[in-house]
């Protein structure tokens, strides 16, 4: 896989190292809380503390990303995360690991993510030529997916082999290494008028968004794609349990197929340049996801046949979802005034992050009352209609 330029390579190197380490940390801290407290509820609180602050702050953090040097934000947040994760190791050595202190540190890590995560897609258009944006996003997505899978696989092994202390140490080092790589990135300076207050800048960002129908449609697509990703995560264990005598094993196959589809599509798109085709890719892939939902309604047969067909459908869904994700990210980057991109990407992240658990809660309730086949059919038809409506609205803005 040929990388695009030195700046982009340094960004990817930092992301790869830190995200593998971050996955190590989440596995280690989840099991530590579960082992020491015996409470799955407290473990859930730790996981929630890793997500909720960044979700809420995403509605405001983009103003800082657009106002101050983005390189400083990226490097600074990684340095701070490395120091915080070093604190986990120090607390462990001192025997002072405490659940509520861990909860506070997780909140601080999540606050950092609220600034770091939207800064990355805002920076990519500054260091990559526009015709290479789609491919750059695909490479970035592939690296993220690879890091998550590798981190998940190796995290458990490292915790079992080395213990919690070394995992905390390695994760702290990973973020410091990430900051080291990112320090070598050259990001063109954007001249920003700082006479306005932060509140005024935030209002200006929302005004810019609400006056642009194209951006509103794209953020709506972000919401519905993430929403249906959340629904898939609920469908998988329910279907595995219904069709198989060994639900956990079947669920593992389902998860592998879905994740494999995302990795395969990201890798394929990283090898080619699909510049200029993002609009049709976004709406057609979203429509296709709806079609796969509908097709899944018709799956019948014995356990082996149904398992195989659902694995194939989930692989296709993974491919389509990653194509849609890369497409809407590229469209946002191309159609945004980059001086607003921090605010828009931070908002997109919060919308997406809120949609997934929202879908999980809704579909959890629905699947208690209705058969999964009817919900697959209904969900697919709704998604197909929404994608067509969104396409028409987006087209009107283009004309």
Structure description:
This protein has 399 residues and is mostly helical. The chain folds into two domains: 176 residues, MFS general substrate transporter like domains (Growth Hormone, Chain: A); 195 residues, MFS general substrate transporter like domains (Growth Hormone, Chain: A, Up-down Bundle). The protein is 84% helix and 0% strand. The protein has 15 helices and no strands. Helix 10 runs antiparallel to helix 11 and helix 10 runs parallel beside helix 14. It is globular. It starts with 5 loop residues before the first helix and ends with a helix. The relative contact order is 0.14. The mean pLDDT is 87.
Helix/strand layout:
Blueprint (H helix, E strand, L loop, with lengths): L5 H32 L2 H10 L2 H6 L4 H6 L2 H25 L4 H29 L5 H30 L1 H19 L15 H13 L2 H31 L3 H24 L7 H20 L5 H33 L5 H29 L2 H27 L1
Notable traits:
84% helix; single chain; mainly alpha; Growth Hormone, Chain: A; 399 residues; 15 helices; 0% strand
DSSP strand content: under 5%
What would CATH call the homologous superfamily of the largest domain?
A: MFS general substrate transporter like domains
Task: Give the overall shape.
Answer: globular
- Terminal Cα separation, in Å? 37 Å
User: Given this structure, which CATH class of the largest domain is correct?
Assistant: Mainly Alpha
Which regions have little confidence, pLDDT < 50, spanning 5+ residues?
A: none
Work out the helicity level: over 70%
CATH fold-level topology of the largest domain: Growth Hormone, Chain: A
How many DSSP helices?
15
Total of domains: 2
CATH architecture of the largest domain: Up-down Bundle
User: Would you list the SSEs in sequence order as H and E?
Assistant: HHHHHHHHHHHHHHH
Which structural class matches the secondary elements?
Answer: mainly alpha
């Amino acid at each position: 896989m040929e990388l695009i330029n030195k700046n982009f390579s340094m960004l990817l190197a930092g992301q790869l190292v830190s995200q593998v380490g971050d996955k190590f940390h989440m596995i280690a801290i989840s099991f530590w809380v579960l082992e020491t407290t015996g409470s799955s509820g407290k473990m859930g609180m730790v996981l929630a503390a890793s997500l909720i602050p960044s979700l809420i702050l995403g509605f405001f953090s983009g103003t800082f990303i657009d106002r101050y040097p983005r390189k400083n934000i990226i490097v600074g947040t990684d340095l701070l995360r490395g120091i915080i994760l070093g604190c986990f190791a120090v607390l462990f050595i001192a025997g002072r690991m405490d659940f509520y202190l861990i909860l506070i540190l997780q909140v601080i890590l999540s606050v950092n993510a609220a600034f770091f995560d939207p800064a990355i897609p805002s920076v990519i258009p500054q260091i990559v030529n526009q015709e290479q944006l789609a491919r750059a996003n695909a490479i970035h997505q592939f690296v993220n997916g690879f890091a998550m899978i590798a981190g998940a696989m190796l995290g458990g092994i490292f915790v079992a082999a080395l213990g919690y202390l070394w995992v905390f140490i390695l994760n702290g080092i990973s973020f410091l290494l990430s900051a080291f790589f990112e320090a070598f990135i050259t990001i063109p300076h954007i001249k920003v008028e700082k006479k306005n207050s932060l509140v005024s800048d935030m209002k200006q960002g929302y005004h810019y968004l609400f006056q642009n129908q194209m951006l509103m449609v794209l953020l709506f697509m972000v919401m519905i794609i993430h929403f249906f990703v959340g629904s898939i995560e609920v469908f998988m264990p329910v279907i595995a349990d219904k069709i198989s005598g060994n639900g956990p094993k079947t669920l593992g196959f389902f998860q592998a197929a879905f994740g494999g589809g995302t990795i395969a599509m990201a890798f394929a798109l990283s090898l080619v340049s699909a510049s200029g085709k993002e609009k049709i890719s976004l709406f057609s892939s979203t429509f296709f996801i709806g079609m796969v939902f509908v097709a899944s309604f018709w799956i019948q047969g014995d356990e082996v046949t149904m398992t195989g067909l659902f694995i194939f459908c989930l692989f296709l869904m993974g491919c389509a979802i990653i194509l849609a994700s890369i497409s809407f990210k590229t469209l946002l980057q191309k159609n945004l005034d980059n001086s607003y991109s921090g605010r828009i990407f931070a908002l997109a992240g919060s919308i997406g992050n809120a949609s997934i658990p929202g879908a999980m809660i809704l579909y959890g309730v629905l699947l208690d009352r209705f058969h999964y086949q009817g919900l697959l059919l209904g969900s697919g038809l709704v998604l197909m209609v929404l994608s067509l409506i969104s396409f028409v609205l987006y087209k009107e803005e283009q004309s």
